[in-house]
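To the wet lab folks,

You asked to see what we're planning to order before we commit. Fair enough. Below is the target structure as C-alpha cells, and below that is the sequence we designed to fit it. If anything looks off to you, flag it before the synthesis order goes out.
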C-alpha cells in the first residue's frame, strides 16, 4: 500500500517537509531534529492559514505550494553547500514549472558561482547563456530589469576575461616563437660544429697518412 505523504513544517529549523501522516515521529532531513508528526503538520497548516489576509484572499494551488516547497528546499541545500542536491531540485522545478524564472536562475547562479566566476569553459558558458535566456524570457517588470543588469555586468566581466586570455595566448605564442628561433640557431651551430669536427677528423687522417709516407721514405733512403 503506497505511503500517503503530507506537508509539514519542522518545529526546529522551519523547513517544509513531506511526512507520513500515519507515523508518530519523524526526522527532519535538513537539521536531523526528531519531531512529533502531528505537531509538524499543525505547524505547517498554521503558517499557511496566517498567510491568508482577510481583505485579499489568496488561494495557493497545490502545484504552486509544491513549487515553493521545492524552491525553498533547493535554497536550503545551496546554503548547506550541498550543491548536487540543489541542482537536482532546481532541474525538477525547471521541468515541472518551466515558466518560472527562479528554477533557471537557480541553475545559472550555481553554475556561475552567483555570477562571480567569469572563467567558465566554453561549454559551461554556453549552458549558462541558455539558462539566462530562459530567465530573461520568463521574468517581468523590475525583476526582469534587475536580472538583465546583473547579466550585462557578468558579460562585461566575461569579455574582460576573454581579452586577458587572448593577451596571455599572444604572449605565450611569442615565447614559443622565441624558443623555436633559439632552437633553430642552436641547430645551425650544432650543424656547423659537426662539420668542423668532420673536417678535423679528415685532416687528422691526412696527417697520419703523410706521416706514414714520410717514415717509409726515410727508411728507403
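Sequence we intend to order:
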Amino acid at each position: 500500500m503506497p505511503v500517503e505523504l503530507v506537508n509539514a513544517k519542522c518545529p526546529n529549523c522551519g523547513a517544509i517537509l513531506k511526512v507520513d501522516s500515519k507515523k508518530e515521529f519523524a526526522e527532519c532531513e535538513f537539521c536531523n531534529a526528531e519531531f512529533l508528526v502531528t505537531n509538524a503538520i499543525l505547524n505547517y497548516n498554521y503558517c499557511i492559514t496566517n498567510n491568508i489576509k482577510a481583505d485579499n484572499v489568496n488561494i495557493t494551488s497545490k502545484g504552486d505550494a509544491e513549487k515553493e516547497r521545492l524552491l525553498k528546499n533547493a535554497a536550503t541545500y545551496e546554503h548547506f553547500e550541498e550543491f548536487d542536491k540543489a541542482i537536482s531540485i532546481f532541474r525538477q522545478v525547471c521541468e515541472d514549472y518551466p515558466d518560472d524564472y527562479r528554477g533557471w536562475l537557480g541553475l545559472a547562479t550555481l553554475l556561475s558561482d552567483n555570477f562571480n566566476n567569469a572563467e567558465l569553459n566554453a561549454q559551461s558558458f554556453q549552458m549558462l547563456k541558455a539558462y539566462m535566456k530562459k530567465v530573461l524570457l520568463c521574468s517581468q517588470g523590475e525583476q526582469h530589469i534587475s536580472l538583465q543588469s546583473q547579466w550585462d555586468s557578468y558579460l562585461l566581466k566575461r569579455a574582460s576575461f576573454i581579452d586577458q586570455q587572448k593577451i596571455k595566448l599572444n604572449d605565450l605564442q611569442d615565447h614559443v616563437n622565441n624558443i623555436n628561433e633559439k632552437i633553430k640557431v642552436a641547430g645551425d651551430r650544432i650543424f656547423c660544429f659537426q662539420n668542423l669536427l668532420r673536417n678535423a677528423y679528415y685532416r687528422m687522417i691526412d696527417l697520419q697518412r703523410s706521416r706514414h709516407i714520410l717514415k717509409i721514405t726515410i727508411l728507403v733512403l
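Structural context that might help your review: The two ends are 127 Å apart (CA to CA). The chain has a mean pLDDT of 85.

Thanks,
Computational group
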